[in-house]
Amino acid sequence: MLKFNNYQKTKTEIMRTKTTLIKAVKFVNNCKFIFSFRKNIFQKNIFTILFCLITTISFAQSESCNSTLIAENNRNIRSTPLDGTYYSMILTNNGVSTDTYVLEISNVNSSCANTDGSSTSGNISIKADFIDPEKNKISEITINPGQSYNFYIHVTVPSGTNINKWSCDQVTAKSKNCSNQSDTVLHTLVINPVND
Questions:
Q1: How far apart are CA 140 and CA 152, in angstroms?
Q2: pLDDT for 182-192, tens place per residue?
Q3: CB-CB contact of 168 with 108 (8 Å)
Q4: Structure confidence by residue, pLDDT tens digits, 165-184
Q5: Is there a contact between 91 and 151 (Cβ–Cβ < 8 Å)?
Q6: Are 126 and 194 in contact (CB under 8 A)?
Q7: Element of type H or E holding 5
C-alpha cells in the first residue's frame, strides 16, 4: 500500500506539474498577446503624438512667420513716363520673432487683369530695383517683430517700349525663417509725359 501511495503521490505531482506547465504556457501566450497588443497601441500612440507635434509646430511656425506687404496708401496702380517712377512699399513683420525677407519681383502679365479693362495681350515688361530709404539697392530686409519697414521700388522702362501699355508685376517678400511669403501686384501704365 505504501508503494501505491508513493505511486499515487508521484502521479499527482506529475499531474500538478503538467497542469502547471499548461497554465504556464497559457500565461506566456497571454503575455505575448498583451505585449504585442500594447506594442500596437504604443505604435498607434506614437503616430498620433507625432501627428499632433507636427501640427503644433506648423501652427506655431505659421503664427511666428506672418507678414504683410502693401504699396503705401494702397497706391499699387501708377503711370510712369519713359524715365521711370517709384513705388513706396511697406513690409510689416506681424510674427513673434525677427525675420529676414528676400525681395523678388516677377512679371505676371499672363495672369493679371489690366485695371482699365484693356487686353493684357499687349502688356509690356518693365525693369525694377529695390531701394532702401538711403537710395541703396537692396535684395532683402530684416525686420523685428511688430515693426514695419518702408522701401521703394524704382521702376524703369526699357528703351523702345511702346507707350500706353500696362505691366503687371508681382512683388514678393519671402521669409527666410519659414515658408511664409507676402505679395502684392503692381499695375504700371507707361505714358507719354508730353501728353499728360
A1: 12
A2: 999 999 999 98
A3: yes
A4: 999 999 999 999 998 899 99
A5: yes
A6: no
A7: helix 2-64
